[in-house]
# Entry
Amino acid sequence: MIICHCNVINDKQVKQAARELCDNPEGGVPTPGAIFRHLGYRPKCGGCFKSIIEVVYAEAEQVKDDSGQ
# Structure
């Protein structure tokens, strides 16, 4: 499913980026801006931020569950 229509970023890309950023012991829950930077894009209209936040928080919970914390 396309999350960002401006940059054509899908939910799988956002999940993977969130997982990679959440796995960093010094990182916390990544912001939409961090997701864009990690994927090599820049936000344009910002309409996707709400959807990105939802995906990131769901993935962060999954990472937390997977690590047993």
User: Anything to note?
Assistant: The chain has a mean pLDDT of 91.
